[in-house]
Amino acid sequence: MNREALILKWLNNDLNDQEFEAFKALEDYDDLVKLHTNLQHFKADNYDTSTELENVLSTIKSTGAPKTIG
Amino acid sequence: MQKTFILGAPTTKLMAKQLHKNICEERLFSSIFNKHSKNLHDFLYYKFGELLNPKDKVQEAFVKLWQNCAKVSPDKAKSFVFTTANNLMLNEVAHQKVVLKHQQTSNPKFSTNESPEFLMQESEYNDKLQRALANLTEAQRVAFMMNRVEGKRFKEIAELLDISTKAVEKRIYGALEKLRKEIKEL
């Protein structure tokens, strides 16, 4: 399996044990892992779905019913 | 007997579909919100950055969905809120470069146990990474960050963006190669 195919499988969390060994043997293995680790610093802000849902429901209720009723 | 059973199935499905014909019902509306709002938020964040308040745009888009709930069928709801929120962003953005904020909330152990040299190198690396991320196309950055940071697989991202899995692969691999090249050069 070539380098690109291995990296794509790694990206998609699809490597089997044997492929994972081959991936670790790639000369850019350390660079790829470092990049992945440091990317986590750029994660999107926390999003709390239940708080946001409460907010949207309270906006909806304060502005009244939908314009038309199905 | 068997025949009746086979004929029965589609009828039941059709009835179920008609019962949920629109989303002017709080429970159905809430379940659509729970299913899509975080993905929409992350999509907006990685595409436009945090300065234009992705959370507010998600709120606005869902209020508009509610206002139009009689006209939008449940299977069109995702595309309605994505399009609406994206347009709200585009109304404000002048397509400047999007710089993703470096979150300072890393592992506390990291800052106390490492040598100053190591910390300096890390900080330089992250500055380069930040600039390189800003140089990706919006499409590359969204697909790449959804994969690397939000842990989504190619197929999930394809469904989210309404594009093929192959196209997702191409965006993510292209982003990876571009980032690595820029980090080396910068």
In total, the number of strands of chain A is: 0
Mean pLDDT of chain B: 86
Coarse shape of chain B: elongated
Q: How many strand segments of chain B?
A: 0
Main sheet characteristics of chain B: none
The helix/strand class of chain B is: mainly alpha
Order of H and E elements of chain B? HHHHHHHHH
Query: How many helices of chain B in DSSP terms?
Result: 9
Please mark out the parts of chain B with pLDDT under 50 across 5 or more consecutive residues, or reply none: 1-18
Helix content of chain A: 55-70%
Poorly predicted runs of chain A are: none
Provide a descriptive summary of the structure in words.
The complex is a heterodimer of chains A (about 70) and B (about 190). Chain A has four helices and no strands. Chain A is mainly α. Chain A is elongated and about 60 Å long. Chain B has nine helices and no strands. Chain B has helices at about 1-20, 25-50, 55-65, 75-90, 110-115, 115-135, 140-150, 155-160, 165-185. Chain B has about 190 residues and is mainly α. The radius of gyration of chain B is 22 Å and the shape is elongated. In chain B, helix 6 (about 115-135) packs across helix 9 and helix 8 (about 155-160) crosses helix 9 (about 165-185). Chains A and B meet through helix 1, helix 3 and helix 4 of A and helix 2, helix 3, helix 6, helix 7 and helix 9 of B.
